[in-house]
Amino acid sequence: MNIADHASRAPQSTALIVADGKQMSYGELYLRSQRVAAVLHEAGLRRGDGVALVLGNCPEFLEITWGCQLSGLYYTPINTHLTFDEVAYIVCDCEARALFVDSSFAQFGSRILDACPRLDVLVSVGERRTGWRCYEDALVAAGDAPRCQTAARCCTPPAPPGGPRRCAVRCPHRVARGPRR
Fold first, then answer.
1. Could you name the domain of life of the organism this protein comes from (predicted)?
2. Residues 6 or more apart in contact with residue 129 via CB below 8 angstroms
């Protein structure tokens, strides 16, 4: 799905209905995705950089992944049921410079920085945590998102029994190209 197409054609149409009944339109979802792109750009991430996500099934997951696509960034979703060591392995392996987590993972704080020194940006979705940037605060403070076109990759598989392996499949994302004209 190209969210930019939906947002330009029918911005008031419902894009998401969350379990608590809250609804979000395509226009709102696209705007929040653009703000995510701006947050990452302002933090110094550029086309081709990596972002890791340790998030459950939530609207923020979609906002962040589409924000990454709009920015030309690669994103790697990570299973929330993995141990700290498994998450750290994947974050390092995908060469993430930014990490978005739900508040339960944010408890690991500086341990993740010790394990993955390449990380520049730590963002906690949900409640505020010491040492982590608050997701909602970051979006409120965000400027305009840059336009970027690129290929994107997602998903680093867990280490198989035979040893580590990386995902290097690159595929063009229509989202990064913007709405059709």
1. Bacteria
2. 103, 106, 107, 109
